[in-house]
Amino acid sequence: MRVVIAEDNVLLSTGLELLLGRAGFQIAAVAEDAAGFLTAVREHRPDVTVVDVRLPPSFRDEGIRAALQARREYPGLPVLVLSQYVEQQYAAELLATAGGGVGYLLKDRVSRVDEFVDALRRVAAGGTAMDPEVIAQLVQRAGDPVAALTPREREVLALMAQGHDNNAIAERLVVTDNAVHKHIGNIFAKLGLAVADSGHRRVLAVLAYLNAGGQVGDR
What is the pTM of this model? Predict the structure, then answer.
């Protein structure tokens, strides 16, 4: 699995190369700035990318802007963003891009090697790997965002939080799949989760539920 890394900190980029190499990834290229990253993506067409939010020359948002540009050029390109801070606007924009795996982790997660490698594999496979702190800030609203849900919608959301898919939820509630689909659509709308990919919206909805005090029971 080929990886392109965009990271200007030599110590961190070298560390990423070593740990990913040991985990079985092939490092196709390491770029120090946004232009170099885009060039490497165009040349190598990697299976997954790891991008720092802040890159030279201004160290503001060059990295994530480059990641979004790369996904526009190559729809579905898996991108795992690393940052020291939660950039809400860009995190939401990244989630809103349809297709392909996306991730947004705070840099202290890199020190948890197993978690980081698992997250990168999940993103490469088309999944989502969002730092809980990132999602928590994305779903913050005035008051309790779950309070507007009906009792049935809360039941559906609670089962989503337990990891059940739509079919399993339908079986547990003795309703049709179409009914579950409708309830989930209402949940997304009431929580204001207007992003393109329903898989990402499930992640955000579940975190909203947990932030509001919901408890995940036994599966």
Answer: 0.70
